[in-house]
Structure formats: structure tokens, C-alpha cells
Amino acid sequence: MKLRIKFAKEGLMQYVGHLDLMRCFQKAIVRAKLPVAYSAGFHPHQILSFAAPLGIGLCSDAEYFDLELTEPVETDRVIVNLNAQMPEGLAVKDAVYLAEGAKNAMSLVAACDYVITADRSDFDYSVFAGWTALRTLLISKKTKKAERTIDILPMIYVFQPEENRIVTRLASGSAANLKPAEMMEALTKALGFDCGGEDFLYRRTEIYAKKEDGGFVPLGEATGGA
Amino acid sequence: MRKTALTHRQLMSVEKPARYIGNERNSVIKDPDKMKTRFVMCFPDVYEIGMSYLGIQIIYDLLNQRESTYCERVYSPWLDLDALMRKEQIPLFSLETQTPVRQFDFLGITLQYEMCYTNILQVLDLSGIPLYAKDRTEEDPLVIGGGPCAYNPEPIADFFDLFNFGEAESTMDAIMDCYEACKDKGLGRMETLKALAQVPGVYVPAFYDVTYNSDGTISAFTPNCSEAPAVVKRQLPADLKGSVYPVKPVVPFIQVTQDRMVLEIQRGCIRGCRFCQAGMVYRPLRERSLEELKAYALELFANTGYDEITLSSLSSSDYRYLPELIDFLIEQLGSRYVNISLPSLRIDAFSLDVMHRVQDVKKSSLTFAPEAGSQRMRDVINKGLDEETILEGAKNAFAGGWNKVKLYFMLGLPTETEEDIKGIAYLSEKIAECYYDLPKEQRSGRCQVTASSSFFVPKPFTPFQWAKMDRKESFLEKAAIVHQTFLEQKNRKSLKYNWHEADLSVLEGIFARGDRRLSAVIERAYRKGAKFDAWSEYFIPEYWEQAFAECSVDPDYYVHRERSYEEILPWDFIDIGVSKAFLIRENEKAKQGKVTAHCRKVCAGCGAVSFKGGVCVETAD
Taking the model in full, what pTM does it have? Predict the structure, then answer.
């Protein structure tokens, strides 16, 4: 049986990278004495898969991983036991059992919400109002073989400057993936501002799967079977 | 969120920012305002190296068990942060509370290898603490050193306020109690050091004067105040049973070099290899009890969640309860998906059986450390290993499915001849032949015998402490001869030979047996930019060549001369428990190629019996 765990990552933990975070959870799961399932083979590992890696320096309210158990445990107990093992900056928010045949978290990822704030307090967010006039937003992406230019504008589903922040929804997952810092770097350049992607702080607030009707549903609710 | 010493922007501009944030599992948080003493413990190398070392976990645990004391940690900032800290004038800080190091009562520095000496200066410098103890004020912490390199503290004596000779379990409480009493009395720095100098095992370099003869050797080494003892004796727990064990070690977020649970099964060694400093300075061998180790293993697992455990000690095969311990670990932890990582064991039927149970034979290799190629040379160094045993082990290993073997050797050992070093290639060839002697159906392809040689560095408190070390040119010539001999072997395609760089070994040799005149050289090299010398890619020999020349110190004096038994050695004032008479006896036996049996066979009268513990008082059970 599989559980989908939702957790928040912030504070000091934003400086711990994805692979190290996985190792941190693997140890916490052992200490919490959860009946986790292991793979076969000479080097068995926990059957555990994260939805979408979060870069170093980003906080998040909603990260997800799927965890296979060998016997059922009440979800409330999973949350309490895991939280007893969490370092400051990590908090398990929810745990939901997946229906038989449900897709794994990673394959479902289609979009992410981010809240973006400038790292200085006197920043005027209204300067971004001009973004609606853009017809393309080009960035060059380096692959192993070549460098190619792509238009990221279609990957920006929502971009909403507010009084003291920007709220945005960006394409995520294997088909199309846009990182918020990448977007801000391109956007500030296109609009001719004297700043770049590293001048902003980023917080992921939700990860979504795509519904059949084209709408988005948080991963924590996309737990049904095929 | 807990505050960080570095801003978000600074953390984002360095590689692996998690090196600098603390917050790891089992790191200790106390209220600094309620503490009498704040201690910051440093391993002067990068986080991943420092966090791999059990000794700091022991000291961290010991000190934090004291209600009045708070011990935090600090490591060398990596080169990227080092540059940023200098540019933006950020003082070095502790991990737990992110407090500037200069605000602590103590800065403890562990001395695990000589090549970290410039990193000590890096840590002091970035902390804003004067490099020389004589320039420090009431505003600076007391800088205390310990660990194996402290057994010749003289090259770095000027940078330390005090050293601790011995094992933390038997000294740290006494040192802290004495310090806290001084603090209660409101004593100043000098008075406090005078009180500390009377604690057994403490050495305060400023309280000793050294004078020299015209040939550069020491003419006298004498205390200059009544509080300082003429001889400082190493302190240690006579019995490890019942001593504290760090069963809640700090668990790093980032992958460190030794990223696993560590079970120290025993301390000290019975073997008496004549080149080995650890084998002398940790005498006598003291075993931990099987029952305690079993309990520690389970507690370590419950407190960390690690998926691997390793055993730590010198010559682990000598631990008398090894089979029972390994069975227990496989049964109790192996069943919970914990890998058992074995230390290098003597290759015999028992160890091969254990390896079969815990390793993927196809992927693993077997390690032998014959240390020398010829039997004559192995007798000189008292290795206690004969060719027959080595070949027998190899045969059994090959028959058991292994086809990769690693061999470790040394070049430049006392009395060494060309035949001795060629023996490295001959022995490797014989091992390969053991493989090809097997019936074809028992083999799987070609075997791979990899021999590596390092250059012998004479160390204090060993029977070879008087020996002349080879020159760099001679080392490289010898390596070339060995290499050539390998190419002449029948099975050369199955043999591989590697040798180490010689520059680092020579510098290590200088520091290992150096004296107080070297501190100026170390400072000069550091000012030129030397740091992380232990990392061969960052080691710049030119800095050191220039530093020796500019300080008018002849490096050859320290390495390339034979010392006489009468000469006063810089470390003679330390009583490690093993007598000079014993070391001389062993050196003379070495010259005659005579071996000395290990402690469990017959007592060689080394002097460690004065500690009244371990193998010296052991009864067979």
C-alpha cells in the first residue's frame, strides 16, 4: 500500500539539496519505525519517490513523496511519528493512502505555484505590469549537445504582480519545466530592469496534477486509481 | 527560523551551503546564557572530512553531558567561503548557535594529520584570533590541541595556549573543572593557564624554554615556572568498559566521507609494528565489552536511522569477540536493511566467511597490507606476517570467488635494499599466480592485483623515531625501480602499481619530527596562500620551498639525518607510557631483523603496564 506524504520545507532546510533531503527522510522513516517496503536485490532501498525536486534556496509549503508500506498504519500516526523525527524547517502536513493503480507523484506533476518576493523591502512590484505586452520570452537552454533558444511564455500559466509579491503558476514536470528563477531572470532582462533572478526569494506553494478537463488539482488530491 | 551567520545571498553563493547551517539530527542546542563555559570543537578540514571523525563525536558528547558546558562545532570553510569571508570580513562562526568563534572560552582543535597545520592558521585567522598564543588577550579563547599529532606538538606549539595529551574520557572533565574554578575566582588568562598546567596531561608551551646547540639540536627543554611539570604524562582510561559512548552522534545532511554508524570495538594495538605511531601511542590495547557494543549498535541505529555500520579499531581481527559481534550485527541490523561494512581483517577462513555473508563478492576487493615486499623487510618492521600466510589467504580468497586484490606497501623503510623493494613486484606476481593456478572453471576472467606504495615517514614515539628519511629523489627512483620490476613479471597484465607523490610525504616528515623553529615557516607558507595542503590538488610545494628559504630554516635537518640516542628530541618531555629504553631495544632488533612477539604472546616490557589496564592485565576467558 502506498502513502502520499505532504510536507513543508523552509528556514535552514532550504539550504539542503534534493538528494540530501531524500537521505534525511530515509533516516527519519527508519527512526519513526514505519513499516516501509524495501526493493529486492543486493542493495535494497526504501520504496520512496519524490514528486518534484526543489532547488537549494527555495522554500515550500507543499512538497510530496510516495512511500510504500508493508502493512497499514493510521495516517495520523504516520504524521505524528514522522514529525517527531523532523529537523527544524521540515514539517509533515498530511498523509493520504493512494487508491489501487494510482499514478505515482512524479509522473503526475504538471504545474507548480510559486510566490515570489524581492529580497529588498522597497521593491515596487507594479513594474511587472508591462509583462502582458510580451509576445515571446526567449531563454537559451544548454543541453549536453547544444544550446537552443526556447520561448517560455507558454509555460507561464499565471503571472500576477500584487502589492508586495508576485503569484505565479508555471509548467512543471517531464513535458515542460520552468524554474521560477529562470523566469525572473528572463523577465527582468526583457523588461530592462536592473536586477536578475538571484534578487528574488521563491516559495513553492503547491504542486498540481492535470485533470482530464484540463484543470489542475493538488497532488494531495490526485490519489485516485486509473 | 534560527539565525544564520551568513545571509541568504552569501549562502546561495557557495557550494554546499548545508556545510555551514548546523541543525543536523542530534546536534545539541543549549541556552548559551546559562552556560559557564562555551567550547567550540574544530576539525581543521572541510565539513565532510571533519564530520567523519569519531573523536569529535566523543568530545562533543562528553562536554555536552556537563550541565555547565556547551560544546559546539566548527570546520574549515571551503575555499569559496574562505574567499568570501575575507572579502566581506565575516568572522568564522560555530554551527550550532552561529556564534563568532572568538567569543568562546575554548577553541579545541584536533590534530589528526600534519598536513592540516596551515588550516589551523586559517581557522584562527578567519576567527580574528591572533595566530601566536603570545599575542592573545583576555578577549580571545584558550586554544587547545589534542590528537595523535599532539605527540609532537612543537612545530605548532607557538599557536596553541595548551595541549591535552591523552584520551578525552580521562582529561576533559578535569580541564573543564579547573577552568570553571578559575573563572569563578575571576582569574586572568595567565593565572588560568598556570592552574591548567597542573592538570595531569596538560602542556602549556609558553611555560617551557628551549635552547639549542650550535649544530641545531636541542640543548635543554626546561619549565620556566613552578606550575609546569618537567614531564607531562599521557592520560587514558585504563578500562573502556563503562565509559561513555556517543550513541547519539550528529547525523549530517550532506554526504560525508564516512557516512555511517561507527562502533569503536577497541583502542590500542598488540602488534607492535615498528613504523606505526598509533600502535605505540594508544597502548595498551583495551577492548570494549561485547555486551556494551551490542547495546551501542542498537542505540546508534535507533538514534540515527543510518543504513550502514562499520567497526573501528586498529587490527580489528585481534578483538576477541569479533565473531559474536558480527553475528549479532548481521542478525539484528542486517535484517533491518543495514549494511555491515567490515574493517580490514586478517584474511582467514573466518573473515572470508563473514565477507561472503555481507558483501557482493563480485564487486568487492580484498585488501592486504604486507607493508613490505620481502620477508627480511617485514621482519625489520615487525609486521608479523609471512609470505606463506599471505599466499594462503590469497588462494582461499580466489577460491571463494574474489578476483580483485589490493596490496599496500611502504618504500624507504630503514635498512631497505633494492632486493627488498623489488620484492613488492615479486609478491604481487606470486599472488596473481595463485589465481592462475586455480582450475579454469573456478576463475572468472582475469584477476586484478593492485599494489600501492606510500613513502615511509618516521614518527615520534616509534622505534624508528631516530631514522633518516629518504629524499624525494630517492623515493621516486625507488618507485621507478618497483614499477620497472612489475613490467618484467609474467602476469604483468593482471598487475597494477601506484605510488604516491613524494612532496607531501617529505613535508609530513619535517613536521612529524620538527621543533619550535618551524612555526615561523608554517606562518610564512600560510601568508603566501598555503591551505588545505592535505588535498593534493591544492598543495603548492613552491609556497613551502620559499617559506623555508625566507625563514632560513633547512628542511633537510629535520628529515635527512640519523639522530643519535643521546640527542634530546623535541617530544622527549612527553611520557606516553612506552619507554625510550623499549623503543631503543626495538630499533636495535629491527637492525638485526629480529621480530618481537605481540602483547598476547609475551610481554615485551614496553612500559604501558604502568597504566594498569587492557591487555597488560587481561586474563584469558
Answer: 0.96
